[in-house]
């Protein structure tokens, strides 16, 4: 237990947030289960074909941006070879009737687009690669 520091981006501004861990169990629907944190720069895994591609080493060099949640890809405003600024929208995923913008974590170049509009993605599935 203890205090953990997380970095979040809100409206293109990076904030550091301190969170104190109170319980190590999560309860949902009357069932308790142990919770474990996912280390930074790792994902929960994913179950789709794109996640399998990532696990098999499809990425040779850059940083792979993964889906933070399960949903349907509504749009991919970023293009391969495009230079983007920190906070620019790369992919939009719809989950539970809400649009979730996946933004650039830093100034970078999009080196490859892995997903496409209309694709179903699981949490952890790769969306695109940046360098």
From TrEMBL:
Residues 53-131 form the Lipoyl-binding domain. Its EC number is 4.1.1.70. It comes from the Bacteria. InterPro entries: Biotin_BS, Biotin_Carboxyl_Carrier/Decarb, Biotin_lipoyl, Single_hybrid_motif. One of its GO terms (molecular function) is lyase activity. Residues 30-57 are annotated as: Disordered. Pfam families: Biotin_lipoyl. The keyword Lyase applies. PROSITE patterns: BIOTIN (PS00188), BIOTINYL_LIPOYL (PS50968). Keywords: Biotin, Lyase. This is Biotin/lipoyl attachment protein. It comes from Hungatella hathewayi. The lineage of its organism: Bacteria, Bacillati, Bacillota, Clostridia, Lachnospirales.
């Amino acid at each position: 237990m203890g205090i953990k520091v997380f970095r979040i981006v809100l409206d293109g501004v990076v904030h550091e947030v301190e969170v104190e861990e109170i319980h190590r169990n999560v309860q949902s629907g009357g069932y308790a289960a142990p919770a474990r944190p996912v280390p930074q720069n790792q994902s929960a895994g994913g179950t789709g074909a794109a996640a399998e591609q990532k696990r098999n080493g499809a990425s040779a060099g850059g940083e792979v941006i993964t889906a933070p949640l399960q949903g349907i890809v509504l749009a991919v405003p970023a293009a391969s070879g495009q230079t983007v600024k920190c906070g620019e929208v790369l992919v939009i995923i719809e989950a539970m009737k809400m649009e979730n913008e996946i933004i650039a974590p830093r100034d970078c170049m999009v080196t490859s687009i892995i997903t496409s509009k209309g694709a179903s993605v699981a949490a952890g599935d790769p969306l695109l690669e940046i360098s």
